Amino acid sequence: MSTSLELDEKKLPQHIAIIMDGNGRWAQSRGLMRLMGHKAGVKTVQLIVKAAREIGIPVLTLYAFSSENWKRPATEVSGLMTLLKNYLESELISMLDNNIRLRCIGRKENLPGEIRETLETSIARTAASTGLVLNLALSYGSRDEIVGAAREMAELCLAGKLRPEEITEQSFAGRLYTAGLPDPDLIIRTGGEFRLSNFLLWQASYAEIFITETHWPDFTRKDFVAAIATFQKRQRRFGKTGDQVNGN
Ligand code: IPE
Ligand code: IPE
Ligand code: MG
Predict the structure, then answer these.
(1) Residue 4's pLDDT is what?
(2) Which structural domains are found in the chain, ordered by start?
(3) Are 108 and 116 in contact (CB under 8 A)?
(4) What is the pTM of this model?
(5) What percent of the chain has pLDDT over 70?
(6) Given 8, 21, 183, 223, which residue is catalytic?
(7) pLDDT of amino acid 3
(8) Among 38, 41, 45, 48, residue whose Cα is nearest residue 228
């Protein structure tokens, strides 16, 4: 299936990042355990990855687990890790079949060894794919990412391998986890909260933000297309005036 009739194929976002929130509330409102919400959320992930691929979005980043989410009850954390492992194992063939390239941003080293191995295997096996880049944010925190980049550059300076004046927006961005990826044009947050929760703070400078009350397990392909359609109606001015952008 090609892109929806609603969308202008020439104005597709090059990178969509999603804060997949609301799994817990979705479950609790149904009298279910929070983990059932995460389980239902995995189905939405499959649906939206397929949609992004079919619409022709080059990069899709999914915020799956934040550096702060480790503070949740141990049972929820281990349940989420199990879901992640099952997802990675069950999707590898489908990723290869669909020319999807897996990437990951975040502190991989904080993940349980078994998951890290599964993740590394999937990343390596899909490295030659040329279609959708599926970028999973795992144990990801934006401030931690920025401090890490600053520290790396400071060390290079101390070692005499970098001059302070060589620290530019471009070279700094090249030290972030997202090095080589375009900045997100569109950030979608489900679950209705008006915040970024430590997600892509540097990269989000000029992202268009779309927030929906819909909880992640209820988010559909139609909602995804609607978010992109809304994005396409926005005027991105990047600091200029509307007239300048329109060429007047
Ligand atoms: C998002 O859903 C998934 C993760 C953070 C792992 P939540 O679990 O945060 O759901 P709510 O916000 O409690 O409803
Ligand atoms: C953000 O959701 C993290 C993910 C979606 C993985 P949270 O539920 O952790 O965010 P807060 O705590 O409500 O800000
Ligand atoms: Mg939440």
Answers:
(1) 67
(2) 12-141+182-231 (3.40.1180.10)
(3) yes
(4) 0.97
(5) 98
(6) 21
(7) 55
(8) 48
